[in-house]
Amino acid sequence: MPVEGIFCGFSAGSPPEAAISAVFLLLLLPLVSAQTYHWGPCPTPKVQPRFSLQQYLGRWYEIAKLPASFARGKCIEANYALRKDGTVRVLNSQFYKDKVRYSEGTAVTPDPREPAKLGVSFSYFTPYSPYWVLTTDYTGVAVVYSCTDILRLFHVDYAWILARSRFLPAETVNYAVELMMNEGIDLAKMKLSDQSGCKD
To answer: What is the 3-state secondary structure (H, E, C) of the chain?
Structure first.
């Protein structure tokens, strides 16, 4: 299904569960107000087999994503580079409110047996958030998913379609969308990113 053809859908749980979740939503409103959240625990999609971090390093451009409060601009890209200590430097950039803005974080591989399941943090004070590479050919496209359970009552998730160039053919975007939907990821709020008029 094309990104433009995805419609918003939301199904609530039973009334008591919905009431409890509503309380938590109010408490966590600053966190989830600009995110995508759903009732129930996170889905568990399959990730890239035999993932190679070395091949994944470098620059990726954002083609489409679920809403994220930290990425509201245009010309969004991420650059991954290996540090001497074995962690990965994550440098995100976007053009927002008339200037280029940067944010630097760190990515790690919590379990070497599952190299496609990374964790990313942009602050010393926040835990690592999941960063799962569902699929990539390393040279053209990558599909990434992140999900956090809130007491298993609901979950907040992110999803990205990334590319090595600022634009992807529609059929490649549709392939990435279908892959995520087949893994049980709700893409009703996914939107195409603006990569027009950007400076390389």
So the answer is: CCHHHCCCCCCCCCHHHHHHHHHHHHHCHHHHCCCEEEECCCCCCCCCCCCCHHHHCEEEEEEEECCCCCCCCEEEEEEEEECCCCCEEEEEEEEECCEEEEEEEEEECCCCCCCCEEEEECCCCCCCEEEEEEEECCCCEEEEEEEEEECCCEEEEEEEEEECCCCCCHHHHHHHHHHHHHCCCCCCCCEECCCCCCCC
CA angle 135, 142, 36 (to 5 degrees): 95
Domains in the chain, ordered, with CATH? 37-192 (2.40.128.20)
What's the predicted TM-score (pTM) here? 0.81
Identify any residues that bridge with 37 across adjacent strands, giving them in sequence order: 156
Could you state, in chain order, the average pLDDT of each consecutive group of 10 residues for the chain (200 residues)? 40 44 44 64 95 98 88 90 97 92 95 97 88 98 94 88 97 98 94 91
Nearest CA-CA partner of 185 in 147, 128, 136, 150? 147
